[in-house]
Amino acid sequence: MYPELDTPALVIDLDAVRANIDEMAEAAARHGVRLRPHIKTHKMPELARMQLDAGAGGITCAKLGEAEVMADAGIDDILLAFPLWGEPKLRRFAALRERARVRVSLDSPEVAAGLGRLGGPPVEVLVEVDTGQHRLGRPPGRPTADLVAEIAAIPGVEVVGLLTLAGHAYHARTATELAETARREGEDLVATAELCARDGIELREISVGSTPTARHAAGVAGVTEIRPGTYIFNDTAMMRLGVATEETAAARVLTTVIGRPIPERAVFDAGTKCLASDGTGTPGWIRAAGLPYVHMDFLNEEHGVALLEAGHHDDLPVGTRAQLIPSHACAAVNNFDLAYGVEGGRVTTELRVAARGAVR
Amino acid sequence: MYPELDTPALVIDLDAVRANIDEMAEAAARHGVRLRPHIKTHKMPELARMQLDAGAGGITCAKLGEAEVMADAGIDDILLAFPLWGEPKLRRFAALRERARVRVSLDSPEVAAGLGRLGGPPVEVLVEVDTGQHRLGRPPGRPTADLVAEIAAIPGVEVVGLLTLAGHAYHARTATELAETARREGEDLVATAELCARDGIELREISVGSTPTARHAAGVAGVTEIRPGTYIFNDTAMMRLGVATEETAAARVLTTVIGRPIPERAVFDAGTKCLASDGTGTPGWIRAAGLPYVHMDFLNEEHGVALLEAGHHDDLPVGTRAQLIPSHACAAVNNFDLAYGVEGGRVTTELRVAARGAVR
């Protein structure tokens, strides 16, 4: 299994990546909405370019540092889905605007006022709405409409739309619950925009949709944009939610068994410093591809400690390789400077995780 | 608060670091054992040098890549506490041995045989023992003594001692339970070494002790070496175990409030990509230094979402800075390429996290 690579290593199945990109692009096209994928999952300009070539209309970044990396690669339509605060970032944002169209999301007049003081053409902003995750934003309806009116009155910014992340969808227990959360995500924003219109503020963007909800939310009348990220790689969290399979899980950590202390235990050379701690303790949060009898017990920083089902206690001798599927692909990828692209079971390219760690 | 730094940023209180280094060095000296600190916490040659200058007798690394970074900085006495497997790593290990004294821990004849085939002077190995964490190693007593005999018979390796990590100590609920775990950690290995001696194999190293247990385990007769790592920075996990305080928590993430969507909620610009997901859900797993009324609710990748106690709903306006203490310092540090050393409340130096991500 990839003998040219030492372990642990991040391998990206580019065949699966292409299929994942196409599937989401088709879902967006079918509903006539813009797909603006979040690049926080892969952090690689090459893959952002593949998404754009397949029909994406711009990209989403969380942090300014990610946006700068993508702009360096020539990407010129970026939604910065994070409130910008402070002079150093505002200076960098002003420079970024010189070479790309950049919109920003925010949820406060304070952040809007900072952007408004930049000068130049008005900064296009989307107001973040709390559709149930309880992170940023006010609830839909009147609380958000009032905030939109307040921000719209600030010189130098133009409120172009509403944005939400239905992060609570990750906790959905059934497909029905997931679909319902997605529908609400879209409908709540559309209804709020109608309220804003009655207040005299016409909003032209309704931006919703994470990987679990995007395919549903895209179908809500009035939604203009979906921003899924994880779909390009998927992970066990997406598998658990029923929106991915082992075959579409494209990012894996190639690892080696370095200890078999007792027959029922195998220890891999990859722990949280490869796979991250996200999802720890959730049953099946780390899976060994093609090895359903391997059950991860716990991770230390450099060890993955797995239990083997009865009947497999002679399997996986020291030196055996396996591919571990992370619980959260975005977090796992952020642990690596370099990934290896594989196609047809062979390593075909090296991919730099160019925006890894770009948290500022 | 550190206006010269943009946020989020990793700040290291070097005054606290010096005190932490001295305190553990004194504990080791008092008991006459070697302190061989694990550098996985800081990953910085400068801090390893400070530990050595304060009396440490060599360092511990997990991965070969970490050891290479430390050897590049001139550190020449290294315990590699991880089984080495595969030709690429064995070649690198052979090169590393040319410039440093390197011991390796392992728990299998397979790994020992690989090392034994290297040639040159015998490779000094420590056999890992499972004192209750159930990761690598066999249980103490006869199972380990038999393994030691098997490995000692392999040409090219010399078994010099026993090693364990009492990782289960992290789950201790009381100081008494912690002390008892530490005592057992030491005594189990000493008793096993006596069994080996009766088998005709004299072992000269008994290597134990993580940060929670090191001060206790150092006092067990027969223990020769302790390997704590986290003590240099500490974290909320160490605070919860009663072996650290907010004052000795030296690694913090400097962050800014970027949203105050409702009076009881403040959102920081640092999430799991700064603080890691380790400890998620444990009460108080992330603490805001000096702000006891701030209770972290959840982290996303780039957001830290906190709830504020009644009476503080007007505090922390957008733009306020705070220092967040991570649950697991080692994991948080691994998210950053650069840290800022602070002394007396001022930034005095930049520290490169030179061995960040060195998982191979």
From TrEMBL, chains A, B:
The keyword Lipid biosynthesis does not apply. InterPro entries: Ala_racemase_N, D-amino_acid_metab_enzyme, D-ser_dehydrat-like_dom, D-ser_dehydrat-like_sf, PLP-binding_barrel. Keywords: Lyase. Pfam families: Ala_racemase_N, D-ser_dehydrat. Residues 250-343 form the D-serine dehydratase-like domain. It comes from Nonomuraea solani. It comes from the Bacteria. SMART domains: D-ser_dehydrat (SM01119). GO terms for biological process: D-serine catabolic process. Belongs to the DSD1 family. GO terms for molecular function: D-serine ammonia-lyase activity. This is D-serine deaminase, pyridoxal phosphate-dependent.
